[in-house]
Write a structure and sequence with these properties.
Elements (H helix, E strand, L loop, with lengths): L3 H52 L4 E5 L5 E4 L1 H6 L13 H10 L7 H12 L6 E5 L5 E8 L5 E7 L1 H13 L3 H4 L5 E6 L4 E4 L1 H6 L19 H17 L3 E9 L5 E12 L5 E10 L1 H17 L1
Antiparallel strand pairs: 1-2, 1-5, 3-4, 4-5, 6-7, 6-10, 8-9, 9-10
Helix pairs in contact: 3-4
């Protein structure tokens, strides 16, 4: 039996309970709102860092959705194709972008042919890396990575100078088959002291099965740090001064542990604009001569 006092107590307790629930809801909402704002701030910070990185990449970058609409691109992508960044706003179709490149004189193919190429690449039927020759003579290397949802990311890199330098190397240094006949070490390096041409004698003594395994390596990959550092200093001096180094005596320890004395010549390479883009080196083994000289010196000392 419900009495007046119990009914009155319930009526008094009920509003208090609702007030407590309301207060708890307000606190929970405030906490969730704070967490949400913190999350949004963190995401905005990450997005800003991501955008900064994208804008400072030396390659042109573009990202398209499955409907071939631009999601984002960086300034370098616009520069490569002679466009203003505002001409590449998100939402444009690949077809519209190719037409703008055609208007700027930087389209490698007609619009339909380019779209067919892109479709072939994104379907997995075409190569993911290919080069495009622009009307102004530049060569652009394009790498495309498709995503599971049908979107894709592509990088565009101007490799004109690299291609031209390689052609110069091919003109000045004979075919690989020919240089492999040279018994002395023979190599070509770029301005960062990375090997771009190597003969079999040098590759073998460096512990590599193929000359191709040496491409892109530096002396730090095949010699102790102190030896590699000395070679780098000498080469940078040649590159900076433009003066060749002739018959300098150097020693190395090859991959089998054999100590060799070398007579090295390093000459800077220049392109058609007389700019230094690397150096060519040749080193002949003078170990036997050094040993003979050492023995002669020892005998002379013993006679005294």
């Amino acid at each position: 039996m419900v009495t007046k006092s119990s009914r009155k107590s319930a009526e008094t307790t009920e509003p208090a309970g609702l007030a407590a629930l309301a207060k708890l809801a307000d606190v929970s909402y405030g906490s969730l709102e704070h967490e949400l704002r913190a999350t949004i701030t963190a995401l905005e910070g990450q997005a800003l860092r991501f955008e900064t990185v994208i804008e400072n990449v030396s390659q042109g970058i573009c990202f398209f959705d499955r409907d071939e609409r631009l999601i984002l691109s960086n300034r370098r992508y616009a520069e490569i194709y002679g466009l203003a960044p505002e001409q590449l706003r998100p939402g444009l179709t690949l077809s519209e972008i190719v037409e703008r490149r055609a208007a700027a004189g930087t389209a490698a193919l007609a619009t339909d042919a380019y779209l067919a190429m892109a479709g072939s690449v994104n379907s997995g039927k075409g190569p993911r890396t290919w080069t495009a020759k622009l009307p102004d003579g530049r060569t652009i290397q394009i790498y495309t990575q498709s995503m599971p949802d049908g979107s894709w990311l592509a990088t565009h890199e101007d490799v004109t100078d690299l291609t031209a330098n390689r052609q110069i190397v091919d003109e000045r240094i004979s075919l690989q088959a020919l240089i492999d006949w040279v018994p002395n070490y023979l190599w070509v390096k770029d301005t960062q002291s990375r090997f771009i041409v190597v003969n079999s004698a040098l590759a073998t003594d460096s512990g590599r099965d193929n000359t191709a395994d040496m491409i892109g390596l530096t002396d730090f990959d095949i010699h102790p740090p102190e030896v590699a550092r000395k070679f780098r200093q000498v080469e940078q001096s040649v590159l900076e001064s433009g003066q060749p180094l002739i018959d300098a005596e150097e020693f190395v320890v090859n991959a089998s542990g054999t100590v060799k004395w070398l007579s090295s010549t390093k000459v800077p390479l220049r392109n058609a604009q007389n700019e230094i883009f690397g150096l060519v080196g040749i080193a002949r083994d003078i170990t036997a001569r050094k040993q003979a000289m050492s023995c002669a010196a020892d005998r002379q000392t013993s006679w005294r």
